[in-house]
Each structure stands twice: as structure tokens, then as C-alpha cells.
Amino acid sequence: MTWEYAPAPESRDIANLKANYRMFLDGEFVEGAGEPLKTVNPATEEVLAEVSTASPADVDRAVKAAKRAQDRVWGRMPGAERAKYIFRVARMIAERARELAVLESLDNGKPIKESRDTDVPTAAAHFFYHAGWADKLDHAGFGPDPRPVGVAGQVIPWNFPLLMAAWKIAPALACGNTVVLKPAETTPLTALVLAEIIQQAELPPGVVNILPGAGDIGAELVNHPGVNKVAFTGSTEVGKIIQRSLAGTGKKLTLELGGKAANIVFDDAPIDQAVEGIVNGIFFNQGHVCCAGSRLLVQESVAEEVLDKLRKRVATLRIGDPLDKNTDVGAINSREQLAKIQELVASGEDEGAVRWTSPCPVPDKGFFFAPTVFANVSQAMRIAREEIFGPVLSVLTFRTPDEAVAKANNTPYGLSAGVWTEKGSRILLMADRLRAGVVWANTFNRFDPTAPFGGYQESGFGREGGRAGLEAYLDV
Ligand code: NAP
Ligand code: MG
User: pLDDT digits over 221-274, tens only?
Assistant: First the structure.
């Protein structure tokens, strides 16, 4: 049976889109001295707004404002008082959830059902969770009197713009640090609405500063001598540059980089449920997820059945208008990212993998890529080794648990993994042997502020979230 869906668009008026956005520095919205940038809607290629950007001198002013605020107000404030501000931010995100969700889908291209049900509520959850820690740090297991680190310089990517901002800012504030954050060039808008919320919540000026700009401003920020702690999420390539430039400076650093996660399906797994997990693992957020289950490892005896069911299921995914509530797969965030996906997919075909692409209709304007599954993939192929960061799944097979572990660990990354099996003992064994920061069992892409998240090897180091995540923001 096929279903015909009538359009069910969310109204874009809810986003309260403005023609111009300014940066947030020392409690005020000000014009940056950098070249303004135009942010586009990747689903239509229209310009959404013009955003002012920071210059190196603005970075310097912001770091100094953050330092003053940390020394004079925020670092001295009792945790119970800091908590009240952070709880207020959490509540205000929840109150403006619809507006933030629509704005995120416009600027990023992700389906409204994801920004509405995942990004925005999880962003609020990070503030709620960390507000709760602010007055309990003496009991967090870091000694009797852990101190804030100082000023945190934070650089985030475009795949979860608001959520990444929350993920970075909330723990920093809870621990008594102040923040200068640079959002990604293609998705600055929700971070600037978050700045508005922070201003309305009456956080003291300078506690949070948000400076849009390109990579050079990110570099300016992380290398500023007034920054005591750097938190970066993005590509392994830029992570390595940052690690090199910070060596010997004494700055604390956490890096959350790329991934090439194995999603492992054993023959005793509930297949229909696993298929849903595979789909969620790679097609959630167009595959623009550092922990995406981009390498499917399926036990040979069920490979045909799994692939068959998978293609049938993927063919039902609806691709198109991110604001339509029935859309499953939205737009690729930028033309550059689309070109990167196309290049890697072409390499998969050249190297002899068998490509299947969903026959679903694809809009002819905007940046879109239809869900794609590669079979007959071997470990040496680029599509098995490199992060595609798009809606493209590479399928490999295995015969024994040992072979599954060897193949899963055969990667320079190590951020996440998934295991599908009915046997609890096998889950524990696999979790023990897989070199990945997060191992999901019979589920995938679950995010929760109470759970530490982070990688091994080229996926970075340090943990974010949970009690472990506080350590990066404390002098212990
Ligand atoms: P990226 O270049 O690493 O960008 C991440 C952030 O760092 C952005 O805010 C970027 O600014 C900034 N930046 C760029 N160069 C910098 C430098 N030298 N010093 C400090 N900051 C700098 O990542 P991308 O271009 O957005 O994506 C490239 C690839 O990275 C993706 O294809 C994917 O493989 C991976 N990625 C991983 C994650 C993750 O969650 N782990 C997220 C996004 C991307 P601009 O926005 O101006 O570039
Ligand atoms: Mg945009």
C-alpha cells in the first residue's frame, strides 16, 4: 500500500526571522567589524538574513569582557545563584521552542520534526541538567572545592547549531566559567536567538558572548591568550590544527571530531527493529551526525534479508521541504557539503561497490541528496573509511563476532557504535571490545545530557555531558 501525503507545512512566520542579526558582546547586540555574512536556506537557496561578523579586535574585546565577568561576578557567585540564571535560560528555550525549531529548520535544512522533537528539547535539557549541578560541584567527586577554569573559547559546527551551543555553554556556566562562542558560518541564527534569551534572562554582561564569523575567527578565538579552555566540535582536520596550535600553552582542550561508526547487526537481532535503527542511525539529520551509524556490519546469514527490508523501508522516506511535518530527510546544509557527498559517492561507484539510491522524488531547487545504500563494500574503499557526513550508508558483512569486532575497530575514528542482538551477554562483550566512546545496544542516536559523550583516537578526546563532562570546565 502506498500513502499519499498532503503537504503539512509549519508556518515560517513562527521563526520571527529578521533581515539583520548582530553579534552579542558584553551583554549588547553590536555590529561586528568583520565582513557581514549572508546565511541561506539550503532547501531553497534564498538568503534568509544578513549577519554581522567579528573581527580579531572584536574577539579581543569579547574575551576581555568574558574575563571581567568571570573575575568580578560569575566566578564568585554562589552556585545556587548561578543555577537560577541557568534554569531561567532552560525555561525560556522551552517557551520559545516552536520559534527556535522553525528557525533551525530554515537555517540548517533539517526536518522540522527533528528540530522540534530532538534539537530544541535536548538543548533545553542541557541547561536544565547543568543548572542542577551548579550548587553541587563540591560533591561531584572532584575534591572539596573545584574551581572554574576561567574563560571558555568554544567553536561549533553547523549540524546541530542550537544544540551544540547549549551543549557547550550550559556546563561552562554551571562550573562558573564565562564563554565566547563562535557558531558555524552557515548556521548562526539560533545561537543569536539564544543570545537574546540569555540577555532577557539577565545574565550579567560578558558571561556569554556569541561572535559569528568564519574559520579565521574561530582560530583567532582559540589562540587568544585570554582563553583558558577550548572546546571544539567539528572536523578532525581542524581539530588537529587546534591541537597543534594549543600545544604548550597550558590551555585545557576538548575535541569532539568526526566518526565512522559501525552499526552491527547479528543474526539473532529482531530484524524489523534493527532496520528502524539502521535508518535512524544514518538518515537522521541527513547523516550530518558525527556519531552516525554510517558503516552497517551485518551477519552474513541475514545480510540479504536485512538489505531487502532496508531498501523497502528507505524507499518510503520522504525527502523535501524541511518545514513539512511529514518530511523525513531534509536539505544538505550547503553546496560544499553536497559536493563532498557526491564526490565520495562517485568514488564508491568507481571502486566497485553496488549503489542503490531511493527512487523518492527530490526537489529540483536547493541542496538535496536522496538516501543511498552501498552494498558489496570492502574495508579498503573510501566509503568504508572516510566520513561522508551525508545520507549514505556503506554495508559490509561478517561471519563471527570476532570478525565483527575486528572490522568495527578497523577505523582511525572511535566515537560511537551500535549492536543489535537478543543476547545480553553479547551486548556486554561487544561493548567491552568496541573502541568507541558510546555503544548503543538495540537502539541508536540517543542523546541525553546525563550521559558522557566523546571519542577515541581521531574522534577526539574529553567527554561532554554527565558528571564526566564537568571535569573539562573545572580546575581539579
Ligand atoms: P569544520 O571546518 O571543522 O568547522 C567546524 C567549526 O570550526 C566551524 O565553526 C568553522 O567555522 C570553524 N573553523 C574552521 N576552521 C577553523 C580553524 N582553523 N580554527 C578554529 N575554528 C575553525 O567543519 P565543517 O567544514 O563544518 O565540516 C567539514 C567536515 O567536518 C564534515 O564534512 C564532517 O566530516 C566533519 N564534521 C564533524 C562534526 C561533528 O559533529 N563531529 C560536525 C560538523 C562537521 P566555519 O563555519 O566558518 O567553517
Ligand atoms: Mg544557513
Answer: 999 999 999 999 999 999 999 999 999 999 999 999 999 999 999 999 999 999
- The alpha carbon of 415 and the centre of ligand 2 are apart by a number of angstroms equal to 26
pTM over 0.85: yes
Please tell me if the CB atom of residue 256 comes closer than 6 angstroms to any atom of ligand 1. yes
203-206 contacts, C-beta under 8 A, 24 or more apart = 203/27, 203/85, 203/89, 204/27, 204/69, 204/73, 204/74, 205/26, 205/27, 205/28, 205/65, 205/69, 206/26, 206/27, 206/65, 206/66, 206/68, 206/69, 206/70, 206/178
On the question of pLDDT at 1 being above 80, the answer is no
Ligand 1 pocket, residue 384 CB under 6 Å: no
Domains and CATH numbers, the chain: 12-256+456-475 (3.40.605.10), 262-441 (3.40.309.10)
Q: 395 pairs with which residues across the strands?
A: 296
Atom of ligand 1 nearest to the CA of 459: 41
Q: What separation in Å is there between the alpha carbon of 20 and the centre of ligand 2?
A: 13
| Average confidence (pLDDT) over 386-393 | 98
